[in-house]
Design a protein that fits this description.
By secondary structure, the chain is mainly alpha-helical. The protein is built from eleven helices and no strands. Helices cover about 70% and strands about 0% of the residues. The chain is globular.
């Protein structure tokens, strides 16, 4: 799961949401350095990742994506699952995605001092591009892959990925829906 799903699966507490948002940047026992609710969000992030990494449905999506991305397939599927959550947001929330995104962006600004160093370099672009809101369209997904291929070790296979995703869109969408119901049940949401 990527940012939108992690934040959504945190429930309504903004500090837990923030902790879940920074979870990938907080390594080992460094979570102990944070206030209690942020710490809870970081640990929830780890729980979600553990569930996702062993879930049969997510693994099916990852296996299909391996054709394009090899060992990076899971990263790409995480972002793709955020696309499906954003594009079907009204099924999961009574608050519009635009308002939800705006509220969370305020949370990031308010808690900027708690961002890990690497997250502080990412946050400005995240906020400027209104990343949570833009996930709803595939053009945003494509943009995320391009940027990741520039700033991370993700190989630049964006063109191939978009073709592959369009060809397998309904399978990925169906897997996301089933997976998301399972994780929501697991977390009692």
């Amino acid at each position: 799961m990527n940012f939108l799903a992690h934040i959504y699966l945190s429930g309504e507490d903004i500090e837990v949401q923030f902790g879940n948002f920074i979870g990938d940047w907080v390594k080992g026992n460094k979570y102990e350095d944070y206030p209690e609710k942020i710490k809870k969000g970081i640990l929830l992030h780890r729980k979600i990742d553990t569930f996702t990494d062993s879930n049969k449905i997510a693994l099916t999506s990852n296996k299909r994506m391996r054709v394009v991305y090899g060992k990076y397939a899971g990263v790409v599927v995480d972002i793709l699952y955020d696309h499906f959550l954003a594009s079907n947001w009204e099924k999961y929330s009574d608050i519009s995605l635009k308002k939800y995104s705006k509220n969370f962006n305020k949370t990031v600004r308010k808690n900027y001092k708690f961002l890990p160093k690497r997250a502080k370099t990412y946050a400005p672009a995240f906020l400027l591009n209104n990343r949570l809101l833009c996930y709803a369209n595939l053009e945003c997904f494509e943009d995320v892959l391009v940027k990741m291929s520039i700033y991370t070790s993700l190989p630049d296979k964006t063109s191939e990925a978009i073709i592959h995703i369009k060809q397998n869109y309904s399978e990925y969408a169906s897997e996301f829906e089933t997976f998301f119901e399972e994780i929501r049940t697991e977390l009692n949401l």
